[in-house]
Amino acid sequence: MSSELILQRRNLILITSIMWFLKYSQIKIEQFTILGIQFKYFENPNAIFIALWIIWTYLLFRYYQYFMEEGKSKIQDNFIQIFQKKAKEKIQKKADEKYAEHKLEHTSNVLLNKSIVKYICPVKGNPDGCNIEMPIKEFKSEIFKTVISLLINKSIITDYLFPIIFAIIIMIYCFYGWNGAII
Question: What is the pLDDT of residues 33-72, one digit of tens each?
Fold first, then answer.
């Protein structure tokens, strides 16, 4: 994770936590102090909430930009890597059945396309090798196991997706029954 993404992640989690705290504690702003200057009366105290929402929106957008540059590809790469391991056993079994008369050398990886899982491996005595294609829908349990494995065994989900999910959940929470809500 790059230092820029870590910075954006931290800022988004911080402003989102502040928004949650303001809503949860039902704070009403009556005075405001900045750099030792005290403002005791506001004509429109909601201006502070609007400023916080603008900052929150900006930081969410910045995090999204960095996530799309770095995080999305890492999540996809991890998913494909785990899925290949989980799908390999199933597709190798299918290859063994189809090429029962040959001795397969299971040295290849599973190739994942949008709708097809493909497996190609060398076969002794057959220059074409084995070529197995199966529709992705036959791998529902492997996909489910891959998602569970990513959620439980890898920090990549909490590193990259947690800030966005947290920000959206808190935004929804803050939009109802609070004087700091924008709508």
Answer: 778 787 777 677 777 888 889 999 999 999 999 989 888 8
What is the rounded CA–CA span in Å between residue 33 and residue 24? 22
Distance CA 116, CA 132 (A): 10
- Specify whether the CB–CB gap between 71 and 9 falls below 8 A: no
pLDDT digits (tens, 9 = 90+) for 76-105: 888 888 887 777 777 777 777 776 666 666
Distances (CA, A) of 80 to 38, 76, 110, 144: 56, 6, 9, 13
Give the separation between CA 66 and CA 160, rounded to whole angstroms.
Answer: 10
CB 95 within 8 A of CB 132: yes
d(CA 63, CA 9): 6
Backbone angles phi, psi at 120, to 5 degrees: -125, 130
d(CA 181, CA 58): 17
SS3 174: helix
Write the CA distances from 179 to 14, 22, 44, 46, integer angstroms.
Answer: 21, 10, 12, 8
